[in-house]
Design brief:
alpha+beta, Ubiquitin-like (UB roll), DNA polymerase, domain 1, 3 domains, five-stranded mixed sheet, 9 helices, 5 strands, 44% helix, 10% strand, elongated
């Protein structure tokens, strides 16, 4: 409280008080000078910015170096700390499979797999997911060679407009990775975080149940392809603390055995 009995609402360290802000807003509205008021507020905030405590590192507000591991590739970027993973995927890496729909973490159209879990890319800050494995829809298949899960969606008519389909496919992939033989109840739960405005839920659930028995063979095939790429990816990721994929050690052993046989 102030000495005269009135409440003291002055901000610590100076700057603009709440009362001055409201009074200034009313004046700005009457005079049409809101831009001047906003400039004064921004200037006061800059002058009174608190110093970081000892031992604490401050990032931003400008671009900072970020290293992401997307689809088993390392990317060195410079982005603002406020940048979401969805923004980086679409704007910086041009991986547009994750769709921006609600941008509020409610529809699931931007679903990706982060460290084995289905997450909304629009709700993750890129700076917070560094060095964690991130998988997008682009990692699953390609034209002419679709992933079995993608083929099942086509066969069971599990899409109409297709805008939400990448998110549903990634959510289904995360489900099947953790629950190889799901029940219908499991599928309901696994896809419950995604929303389809066209209402093709029945086809999606049937697609996931139908493809579940085939996923084991596909994972083995993917592992063989991944082993062939591990050498290059290990070189890309060395030097920043990223560990090589588990398949690399086995690959080297197989090569050594082949050399012995030829010798």
């Amino acid at each position: 409280m102030a000495m005269d009995g009135k409440e003291d609402d002055s901000p610590p360290g100076g700057g603009i008080s709440r009362r001055d802000f409201l009074r200034g807003g009313a004046v700005a509205g009457a005079l049409g000078s809101a831009g001047l008021l906003a400039g004064e507020i921004a200037e006061a905030a800059r002058k009174n910015q608190a110093a970081a405590p000892d031992g604490m590192e401050v990032w931003g507000p400008g671009p900072v170096p970020v290293r992401l591991r997307v689809n088993n590739k390392a990317y060195d970027l410079k982005v603002e700390p406020r940048t979401t993973l969805l923004d980086v995927l679409r704007e910086e890496l041009e991986l547009t499979g994750a769709k921006r729909v609600c941008d509020r973490g409610t529809c699931g159209a931007c679903t990706v797999i982060l460290d084995g879990k289905a997450v909304y890319a629009c709700s993750q800050l890129a700076i917070d997911v560094q060095r964690q494995p991130i998988w997008t829809i682009e990692s699953l298949g390609r034209p002419g060679r679709l992933h079995p899960l993608q083929e099942a969606f086509v066969e069971h008519d599990a899409q109409q407009c297709g805008f939400c389909t990448p998110g549903f496919v990634m959510a289904a992939k995360a489900l099947l990775d953790h629950t190889p033989s799901p029940t219908l109840k499991d599928v309901h739960h696994g896809l419950s975080g995604n929303f389809c405005r066209c209402g093709t839920y029945a086809g999606m659930r049937l697609a996931v149940l139908a493809v579940a028995p085939l996923m084991g063979d596909e994972e083995e095939e993917e592992k063989d392809v991944k082993d062939d790429k591990d050498g290059k990816n290990e070189r890309d990721m060395q030097g920043d603390g990223m560990e090589p994929e588990a398949g690399e050690g086995k690959k080297k052993k197989r090569k050594k055995k082949r050399r012995k046989g030829h010798g």
